[in-house]
Design a protein that fits this description.
The complex is a heterodimer of chains A (about 425) and B (about 110).
Chain A: E1 4-5, H1 9-18, E2 21-27, H2 32-47, E3 52-57, H3 62-67, E4 75-80, E5 83-90, H4 95-106, E6 119-127, H5 131-142, E7 147-151, H6 175-188, E8 193-195, E9 198-204, E10 207-212, E11 217-225, E12 230-231, H7 239-242, E13 247-248, H8 251-254, E14 262-266, H9 270-280, E15 285-289, H10 299-307, E16 311-314, E17 319-323, E18 330-337, E19 340-344, E20 347-350, E21 354-355, H11 358-364, E22 387-389, H12 403-424
Parallel strand pairs in A: 1-3, 2-3, 6-7, 6-11, 7-8, 11-22, 13-20, 14-15, 14-20, 15-16
Antiparallel strand pairs in A: 2-4, 4-5, 9-10, 10-11, 12-21, 17-18, 18-19
Chain B: E1 5-6, H1 12-17, E2 23-28, H2 33-48, E3 54-59, H3 66-71, E4 79-84, E5 87-93, H4 98-109
Classes of the chains: A alpha/beta (about 425), B alpha/beta (about 110).
The complex binds flavin-adenine dinucleotide.
């Protein structure tokens, strides 16, 4: 539908009376965010045929703008049956926000992206928005592949890393910052994204029907699974009861609550080592309990642990119990330490690695290795046609699970999916 | 779109403890990934439960808020605490999906 330019207050009143759903975009000249909005606004007018789309040059109808409380450009205001709505948008207006309000206003769903039955159709659905998913989305966007990325944490697992020193171009950066930078890049490419998880998968004649935790449905020709891994738990009987009462799986999230306290870190890999180093900055004392005789991972971290007099590593020892009812009081050790089997601590950080979640893997029918990692070929294909996997969830990259290898697998997968879709055309 | 209220130590009493409506308080911090995942879920629930439940958040990174964090024994975030009549009646630790948290709240609030 055509966008109508309103030139007078009388014209506005008339249009307001005649249209159940009305949108007004107050714009100005020499206004970059207004120019940015223009094509989006035009697109919306084609997607929502029941809504009347209008524009008002704000400086031309200043009294009307002021009456409506509009003091900047662009400002988009919405009317339903003549009544102004509470929601309005101004400044840098995002397409998603506009769609959201228009859907709510008109009760219609965005037709262009959804078919009549409410299912979104796409050529590629990327499951997960960690480094693997984001990199794949960047490549796919540049190949102009029709795609949707579904995930609930931009940056994934690396958001919980307090210091990353091995990603080229970043001498030292927090996981949160690097995640934000990656997310900004994919957002700038306007990759369609849904902030949710995929909960259900069904194979059909044209590909896969996916369902999100928000209830959205996506029909896709290809799937790229980059859902990463989830924290491994100790598996002790009272563990779940003590989560948030001393037991934690994320040192960067919860470390700050153990200021000047005594904590244990369980594990001996890079994640455990960095957790100890991070916690030593806040806690009084850090005991790192590890079942083997020497720490694994980067020598740079291990050297720092050895030099840090707040950290004491207890080798060849396993945590076999957690003491405390409503609050963790200590960890029970397999071998006594300084004569005691219970090591008194205020907090215990479980850093014994992570493993893939099997629910989607099984629903997709993917073959896995003995560690539940998806078996992928060099081109990131899996045993199911139309399904690729990349990042921590796979057995690729020589089982070296890092940001850079996740990115690399994401890039390879996107390129291979592009070629596959080209061949199918 | 969100109706989530941002709390401070100064407004906590009025907005939470003396609130007529039940209040779900999200103790969170910017450095915490799962807290970021929680935020859009709470934004959406704040619209869905509008008029029945207030949803509010308190940033525990702010040094001025650490007294409240320790009063409510926060040791892990995100920590969601449901207040009724100034008392904590239920707590939800760690990330929850929208449908799950929504269902739990409906049950808890009897609505
Ligand atoms: C504390 C810590 C420190 C680390 N430090 C470093 C370091 O210094 N250098 C380094 O290179 N690596 C480091 N790593 C490892 C690095 O974080 C991972 O290798 C990398 O994040 C893997 O990326 P990914 O995209 O494969 O998976 P992830 O980062 O795990 O991302 C998976 C994404 O999928 C989403 N997801 C899960 N299930 C679903 C679903 N059903 N539907 C939709 N989305 C879903 C998740 O929310 C997440 O966003 C560290 C890890 C930790 C925990």
């Amino acid at each position: 539908m055509e966008i109508q330019y309103i030139k007078s207050a009388e014209e506005f009143e008339q249009i307001k009376k005649e249209n159940e759903f009305l949108v007004v975009d107050f714009f100005s000249e020499d206004c970059p965010p207004c120019e940015k909005l223009a094509p989006i606004y035009e697109k919306m007018a084609t997607i929502f045929p029941t809504v009347k789309f209008t524009k008002i040059f704000r400086q031309g109808l200043r009294p009307l703008a002021e009456l409506l409380g509009v003091s900047g450009s662009p400002t988009v205001v919405f009317f339903k049956s003549g009544a102004i709505q509470e929601e309005r948008l101004s400044g840098e207006i995002k397409e998603n926000d506009l769609v959201f309000i228009l859907e709510k206003l008109s009760g219609a769903s965005a037709e262009e992206i959804k078919t009549e039955d409410g299912v979104r159709k796409t050529d590629l659905c990327i499951i997960g928005n960690g480094p693997a998913g984001i990199t794949a989305a960047i490549y796919a966007a540049r190949y102009k592949v029709d795609q949707i990325m579904v995930g609930d944490l931009a940056g994934g697992l690396m958001t919980s890393s307090h210091k990353i020193c091995n990603f080229p171009s970043q001498t030292e950066i927090s996981g949160m910052e690097l995640s934000q930078m990656m997310a900004d890049q994919v957002n700038a490419l306007e990759v369609p994204q849904i902030n949710a998880r995929i909960s259900k998968v069904e194979k059909n004649s044209t590909g896969y029907l996916l369902e999100t935790t928000n209830g959205d449905q996506i029909q896709t020709k290809t799937v790229l699974l980059t859902a990463g891994t989830k924290h491994r738990h100790l598996g002790l009987p009272n563990e779940e009861d003590l989560v948030g009462r001393g037991v934690s799986y994320c040192a960067t999230c919860d470390g700050a609550f153990f200021n000047n306290k005594t904590v244990a870190v369980i594990g001996g890999s890079d994640t455990a080592n960095t957790a100890s180093l991070y916690l030593a900055q806040v806690a009084n004392k850090v005991y790192q309990v590890y079942r083997k005789g020497a720490l694994r991972g980067e020598t740079a971290w291990i050297d720092q642990i050895k030099e840090n007099n707040k950290i004491q590593v207890i080798y060849n020892t396993e945590v076999i119990g957690l003491s405390g009812e409503n609050q963790l009081e200590g960890v029970v050790l397999s071998t006594p330490f300084e004569g005691n089997t219970v090591l008194k601590v205020d907090g215990a950080f479980v850093e014994i690695g992570s493993e893939p979640d099997l629910s989607l893997i099984n629903q997709l029918g993917l073959a896995t290795d003995e560690g539940n990692y998806v078996i992928t070929a060099k081109d990131q294909t899996t045993n199911q046609s139309g399904v690729w996997a990349a990042g921590d969830i796979t057995n690729g990259s020589n089982n070296f699970r890092q940001i850079i290898t996740a990115c690399s697998e994401g890039a390879i997968a996107a390129q291979n999916i592009f070629e596959y879709l080209q061949r199918k055309k | 779109m969100s109706k989530v209220i941002t709390l401070t130590d100064a407004t906590f009493e009025a907005e939470v403890l003396n609130s007529e409506l039940p209040v779900l308080v999200d103790f969170w911090a910017p450095w915490c990934g799962p807290c970021r995942m929680m935020a859009p879920v709470l934004d959406e629930l704040s619209l869905a439960f509008d008029g029945k439940l207030k949803i509010a958040k308190l940033d525990v990174e702010n040094p001025a808020h650490q007294g409240l964090a320790s009063t409510y024994r926060i040791q892990s975030i995100p920590a969601l605490k449901l207040f009724k009549g100034g008392q904590v009646v239920k707590e939800y630790l760690g990330y929850r999906e929208k449908a799950m948290l929504g269902a739990e709240l409906v049950q808890e609030l009897d609505i």
